[in-house]
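Lab notebook, bench 4. Still working through the backlog of constructs that have no structural model yet. Next entry is a single chain of 463 residues. Request: give me the structure tokens for it.
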Amino acid sequence: MSNDRNKIIKSIEKYFDDGEFIKDLNLLIESKTESQIDNSLETLNNYFLNHLTPSLNKYGFKTEISDNPNPKAGPLLIAERIENKDLPTILIYGHSDVVVGQEDEWDRGLDPWNLTIKEDKIFGRGTADNKGQHWIIISSLQHVIKETGNLGFNCKILIESDEEMGSRGLYDFCASRSDDLSADVLIASDGPRVDPDKATIVLGSRGLINFEMSLHLRKGSHHSGNWGGLISDPGIILSNAISSIVDQRGQIMIPSWKPNSLNNEIRDIIKKLKISGGSNSPPIDENWGEIDLSPEERVFGWNSFSVLAMDLGDIERTQNAIAPSARAICQLRYVVGTNPDDILPSLKKHLIEKGYKDIKVRPSRMSSMKATRLDHNNYWAKLTNYSIQKTLGKPAAVVPNIGGSIPNDVFMNTLNLSTIWIPHSYPGCSQHAPNEHMLSSIAREGLQIMTGLFWDIGNDLPK
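Model written out:
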């Protein structure tokens, strides 16, 4: 049995080393699946029709491209390979859409729609998020089938094409197709490893709520010389209101925004982690965030507030005038142990208590994903770590939840699944920015990990 496992892993290594992985991935990268631009639905559909469907059909998967319940959002692909109804069923998730290409902002010689390899970096839009990651999974499944003739388990795949727009329609789709998507566990790849050199198992994600704070005081702007000191300034008022939410080092000041879940058990898990984004990442500001927490606890065990954008006047053509209004788009990332239904109500109450009763608060675009966290003692979590250690000779880092947000709540809460995420990217990948890339070393290791895991699920489940 161990020889068969080693043979399959050697086969997937050869697939990468011979350049076939890059060749296949480039076909996916060439498809400009930008869900954030208008008139993208045809391109999003063609990605499924021309690329994923033939690849999956070839290995015995039945496929279906379904319209999104939200008519403004892209389609979803369901694939299914049922070998025996008595076998465990794995659900795979990924997303085919990418953020806008930002073609003019990439470094010279780089093209977001054509893979370029420089040293250990594979450049291209979607390499990290998420085409490279879901292709690692699909090609690993294919190699197990190719080498053994079967998986040894049932497999379902769900690929959406609207994740970069907030996964519109995904929740309704999964609720309406829950029988078709029923499984024993979700296994997916998205987001970064905690460290480029450390395989990582993620058990959940921080939740996300984006909201707008706005203040409108009067019609039109007024000369700052004639009216300065006589009429209130919305920019100053809004800035002070925001500064009442956190202190000068970003510590949260609203009591109900502080989670109650950072117990000793979670602290012990986080103590084993060390954040490292690689050479592309900014240095960690030790004097930012909750003062009594380690950097790792601030990301994986606590909540964080951010100001994403502010709108006041025209900074390129500044006038000597007091603006009539100001607004800011803000965000709270939150862990399990925070009541998501109380986030905005408690903010409104806080603002009134601080004297900012005229500031309006409302959810904004891509406003909400719920926090999730699987018990680290879960059977599938232990199996995954067992398999990775068997493949690499060392255990993976186990993260209670990533610092970012993924639609994990739809799988955990709507479909009632255990959820395991195995990321094949790293924090310095320039995701959502020019020069997006994945590391060749992580991609190759990701293929080893996923192929070994799928072989173990089908052939060597520990009792």
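Notes after review: Residues 2-205+371-459 form a domain with the Aminopeptidase fold (CATH 3.40.630.10). The chain has two domains: 2-205+371-459, 207-276+285-369. Flag for follow-up if needed.
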